[in-house]
Amino acid sequence: MGLKYHCSAAALLPVLLLSLSCAAALPSKSAEASSVHRRVTTRSYDAKKRPDQTQIDALVRAVFASPTADDSRATEIFTVTDRKTLLLLKGGNPWTGQLDTAPLVIVIAINGHDIHHADLAALDAGIAAQSVMIRAAELGLATVPMSIAPQPQRIQAVRAALSMPDYVTPHIMVAAGYPAADAYSGASTSYYNEKRVHKERW
């Protein structure tokens, strides 16, 4: 019942919502010092410096703290550190070059047997992904999100790599780790635009 955390001997197993990685910012200086704005994105990771188990557990616990539609708690979490498995997650997805060096990926899936409103599955997964990225920033880790659903080829590749049953749908995955010394890492930017802020109505 509820959110489950999967692991195996081979590995700590293993869009609509990619915009969540650039969360809306408030204009105040205090807001811009928040964990949301400390988020760092990188696509090349340090192979010698890896998140430890305490950090991995903290990222997983961040998902437990995330809200879900109608409190269905249908999220399934897969933590992936095995190099061969990480490369299998690239199947059908041309935007996953970061998996060549990422030491950890958190795959966020939704259990179709447990969710109360299937049309809100992507919403639940996106909120969970944002929670992972914010917690990672607090832990000094860089992250980058990658979409899986609704593309069938990507869904099938990830299901096969992680031995998911067909009623569990992977929606989004988040790579996490320390940036490589020569990597370009972009800090989260405030895109605050008062012209897009509407009080009461348009």
What does this structure look like?
The longest helix is centred in the middle third of the chain and has 18 residues, at about 120-140. Helices cover about 25% and strands about 20% of the residues. With about 200 residues, the chain is of the alpha+beta class. It has 5 helices and 7 strands. The chain has one domain: NADH Oxidase, CATH 3.40.109. The radius of gyration is 17 Å and the shape is globular. The chain has helices spanning about 30, 55-65, 85-90, 120-140, 150-160; strands spanning about 5, 40, 75-80, 105-110, 140-145, 170-175, 185. Mean pLDDT is about 85; it is low at about 1-5 and about 5-30. The chain starts with a strand and ends in a 15-residue tail after the last strand. Helix 2 (about 55-65) crosses helix 4. The chain has a 5-stranded mixed sheet with strand order 1-3-4-6-5, with helices on both faces. Strands 2-7 form a two-stranded antiparallel sheet.
Task: Describe the secondary structure blueprint for this structure.
Layout: E1 4-6, H1 29-32, E2 40-42, H2 53-64, E3 75-80, H3 83-88, E4 104-111, H4 121-138, E5 142-147, H5 152-162, E6 168-177, E7 185-187
Parallel strand pairs: 1-3
Antiparallel strand pairs: 2-7, 3-4, 4-6, 5-6
Structural class: alpha+beta
* Low-pLDDT regions: 1-5, 7-31
The CATH class is Alpha Beta
For the report, how would you describe the main beta sheet?
A: 5 strands, mixed
Specify the CATH architecture.
3-Layer(aba) Sandwich
Give the overall shape.
globular
Q: State the CATH topology.
A: NADH Oxidase
Main-sheet strand order equals: 1-3-4-6-5
Q: What is the rounded distance between the termini?
A: 42 Å
User: What is the total domain count?
Assistant: 1
Total count of strands? 7
Quaternary structure classification:
single chain
Mean pLDDT: 85
Enumerate how many helices there are, as a single number. 5
Sequence of secondary-structure elements? EHEHEHEHEHEE
Proportion of β residues?
A: 15-25%
Radius of gyration: 17 Å
Helix proportion: 25-40%
Annotated CATH homologous superfamily: NADH Oxidase
